[in-house]
Design a protein that fits this description.
Shape of chain A: elongated
Distance between the termini of chain A: 42 Å
Structural class of chain A: mainly alpha
Largest sheet of chain A: 3 strands, mixed
Helix content of chain A: 55-70%
Radius of gyration of chain A: 28 Å
Oligomer: homodimer
Amino acid sequence: HSYIWQLEVKRWFVMLLIGMITACIAAVVDICIDKLAGSKYSLVALYFEDRTDNMTILIPFFLWMSIDIALVSVASLLVVYGEPVAAGSGIPQIKCYLNGVLVPHVVRVKTLVCKVVGIVFAVSGGLAVGKEGPMIHAGSVVAAGVSQGKSTSFKKDFKVFKNFRTDHEKRDFVSGGAAAGVAAAFGAPIGGVLFSLEEGASFWNQSLTWRIFFASMTCSFTLNVLLSYYNGNPWSLSSPGLINFGEFTGIGYHGYEILLFLLMGVFGGLAGALFNAINYKLSVFRIKYVYKSVLCILEVIVISILTVSLSFLSIYLSNDCQPITDSVQYPLQLFCGDGEYSASAALFFSTPEQSVKTLFHAHEGSIKPTTLIPFCLIYFMLATLTYGLSIPSGLFIPSLLAGAAWGRLFGIFLHYLSPDLFSDTGLYALIGAAAQLGGVIRMTISLTVILMEATHNITYGLPLMLVLITAKWCGDIFNHGLYDIHIELHSVPLLKWGPPPLSSHVKAGDVMSRPVITLNTIESVGKITEILQQNEHNGFPVIDPYDQSGMHGGTFRGLIIRSQLSVLLKNKAFTSWPTSTAPRRRIELDDFRNEYPRFTEIEDISITDREKECSIDLRPFMNPSPYSVSKEASLPRIFRLFRALGLRHLVVTDGHNRVIGMVTRKDLARFRYSSHRERGLQELPVVSI
Amino acid sequence: HSYIWQLEVKRWFVMLLIGMITACIAAVVDICIDKLAGSKYSLVALYFEDRTDNMTILIPFFLWMSIDIALVSVASLLVVYGEPVAAGSGIPQIKCYLNGVLVPHVVRVKTLVCKVVGIVFAVSGGLAVGKEGPMIHAGSVVAAGVSQGKSTSFKKDFKVFKNFRTDHEKRDFVSGGAAAGVAAAFGAPIGGVLFSLEEGASFWNQSLTWRIFFASMTCSFTLNVLLSYYNGNPWSLSSPGLINFGEFTGIGYHGYEILLFLLMGVFGGLAGALFNAINYKLSVFRIKYVYKSVLCILEVIVISILTVSLSFLSIYLSNDCQPITDSVQYPLQLFCGDGEYSASAALFFSTPEQSVKTLFHAHEGSIKPTTLIPFCLIYFMLATLTYGLSIPSGLFIPSLLAGAAWGRLFGIFLHYLSPDLFSDTGLYALIGAAAQLGGVIRMTISLTVILMEATHNITYGLPLMLVLITAKWCGDIFNHGLYDIHIELHSVPLLKWGPPPLSSHVKAGDVMSRPVITLNTIESVGKITEILQQNEHNGFPVIDPYDQSGMHGGTFRGLIIRSQLSVLLKNKAFTSWPTSTAPRRRIELDDFRNEYPRFTEIEDISITDREKECSIDLRPFMNPSPYSVSKEASLPRIFRLFRALGLRHLVVTDGHNRVIGMVTRKDLARFRYSSHRERGLQELPVVSI
């Protein structure tokens, strides 16, 4: 009893650590970006000052461009030569991990370092990326690291938390880390929990959820304290997350506006589908042609030049001058009169987070449509081009920004039609942002809650939800969410939430792989070695040996997995000589734990010919009652077993309890109901990753 | 494909209806209580006016008492003679329903009417009850009714939503209804979703969660519109729920206060455990002695008299006079000077909701400790006595109120120690309220979110969470949550979230019931009738018939449930004469749906002796691939199967796929790890309900 209690206390303690460390990382990222981008903009703004002729204005332009190129090159180098899996937002990888598919290297310390340093440089370098997605990845890596109490990269074993060295426990902690990451990114602890549930949970586990909530709350609180301290008012606790949408207090909405919101949802869904379609083509192109390291870095630099040039051109050509107020961080005067600043520069010449806030809260009339239209188009294009580059890059902020731009445009249009009825354009910017983001990533309940928490306003719940539903439904007509597209591009056998519709006629006998490689309860070392060398399977059913006639025997007894076999072989847990029955060495639970998670490959275990004739009794180590189904079981039934219990293998038996096949995740993932192709069940080829 | 789409649209539409109807009911309840309690207090206050001598003050006292007795009698009559299951908060019953156990009558229209009318009279009658818990029950009944498209009580079949007439679909909608109820009660749509998940969900289903969220959002929005309209400012949308904690804006907290909050959590846990212990004794007493209708009603009247007398005495004996402000609804002058009112009366002489708000927001110093101490003690006692009476009664508000009182007391004490450090006593009232409620009901994540949403303040997330964790942990040392205590008192086989710890040595063979009553694939009508008459089992395994030697046959083929057999027999789906093989009448899916949910009892189906010799081929109707386990499967494994897949029966087979036993929920629920008794696994007797 006290053992269980200790374990429970340890679990809470680990969650506390995860929350606090994630918050520290988030704070460091935020402060570094603030300092780095701040220095950059101040410096460039200095050179912009008082330049109104066409030639000398090129000086700050080239300065700006060279700083940006330098910054993004660092980010790109880290990813390309450091850890390629650190590219992108990391959400697709975490989604796979929580779903039960391990993408190699995704939760290593090296990945964390490349990701965190990379995102600081990428954001400061002015690319159309956000720092939010990477925080979720960072939180997950922290969780995976802390919970194991050791680091294989650093060859350091702290000898703590040994009980947590199993896939199952580690995955639970990573859920908490992902939630903490969301909490840090958006100041949305509840949204974080729902994100973890939506992406990862199969079976609702109350005490786990409670711990996840604790991690995300701790993270949000710690970050709040750190950032409030950094901002100079320690106990105001006004910065629960990296992104701050500002206060929307006092702005209500009317019943009739809901129809307009739905319309915006439709538009967001279409725009999102367009975004995804372009990015899909681009990603396919990148996979085919841009895979060399140098090309990857070059591509990043080209996009960076494009970003700076377009931004500069828009600022240069714009004539939207506004009187200076306190809210503008880096006001550029340019061709405007004294005491005025260029509104276009306020959007292009600042961090994306700041621009989102400007679009949400700048008072009516402070940004002209002639500024917004080019901004919206350019930013949409840049965001599409940027996602998928070899840099860490969040997708939330660029989508929000593009959406906020067209949302605000729509609001200005409505205000023009009837200034009394539609007084607030900021609300439309918010709805547009939600619609665009929903159209791109197609997340549902967690996204609603994240946005609700980020706006600190519960009243917007219903409009946000309706907009996100509409955007998702409209977008789903054309393609999948962007994360899912990228997961599919890598052929990961991800399981959906439910079985494919109309699949109840498909039986276990149709999906299973066969023949199955089975092991006898007492098996020779030679055969085990041979089996492990000759195939890549992960689980092997253990059966009673057949008698000479082949009539009796073959009854299914249990399941043993590859890593267990490798530990048994490595520790020589077999009999001392061929005819003996007692094993040479007793194997303890710790022998398995110490190896976790990087088990020795069979090639690296040396087995002598004499040893090959010895045998192992597998019964003490195998799982004696694994889940199995009869070959008549239907696909939806198998699917639910996999999804609800987080299975990786399911043994299929005949009426006499003899093994006739195995169903793995890949077998299941092959069957998908595709509404975008031939409208029917189809088998997709799945490539191992 | 279009069929699936239609079904999906219908599901959303039903959820919309559930949300809107639940909101309407909530609005009606709220307005009726407002009017009824308003008239009562105004009338009594009129008689209280200017009475300062000891004799005539008894006139308003007796008027107050007689009005209260009249009101609570109505509530009690409705419950006792109308529908006894409408008593209490309804949350334990809904919890059972969502867990998979059907408490009879719990989702019927009659129950709804008794509950809703009863709660109006009970709250107006001044008892220590809240209107929140019953809203959750009301939402669930609405969901069960709307989703079926028919009412058996009214003998009306609208012929719509026929697809939803299965236990599984109905249960999904009831989850939505419960969430809508929470949303209506507390203005907490996210809290509602989490409540449904926490109490009901086993397997996370994204699209279902999304629909549940839609129902609760719609409900909160509709209620907001209705109540805002009633309060005279239609589009302010400031009343998202029945209970309103008021605005806590601007009150932060300091790091060192968290320690004090934890201390309050401990106290709340202890106070909650005391509450539960007393209420448990009382409930056992009630089950033993107070079960006659007249006694039940008499008990309610006695408690009502006690409530009024104690309230009156406290007001009468108090000397806490405060200057009148606008926030007091029914100021009583009594022995106070002109322009002053009795602070004690402000707490006792108003609806509990109003008193909670007073304790949270009344400015420092407006309530004296000498008023709070008796209020806290009296209310704690009254709440303990009241829960379990034969009236609809919510538990949230009384617990919050008692907690807010001692929380505020603690705040006043701190303020007395250091007026600078502890400026706000209202925050301490809130924390105390949370601690007390958490200590009584021991809910975790959903309660945190509900309280966060009710306070409209995300900053209080961490303190609320820490307090609720501490209160739960402290309380759990002594006893279970009050809802669980009441569920246990009724011997419901409720499954916990996880398997009992240290139970992995228990095997399927130990838990299963045996022998099992099996049916042959082709079975005679006589045997089926006999089996259905002679036992109460719900599921029957179907096996291949044994041959004469008894050596071959007996292979497990499928599972058929009682209601299916009853429909088959009722519709005479057997062969026309004993030797024939073709059934007399084809059975359609609609034959099953039309009977749902009240299937004909076997006693009411007339089968002639000649028919008894005919036979039914069960294979087209049985479930051909039900889940089964081998007798070696461990209890935790079986438990997870039951919980994750929502099973009701699990067939246990031997190595040759022959049925050797059945595990039902009751078999599982018998095994509990009780930390309060002998500290070990024990088998509890389970009584059928």
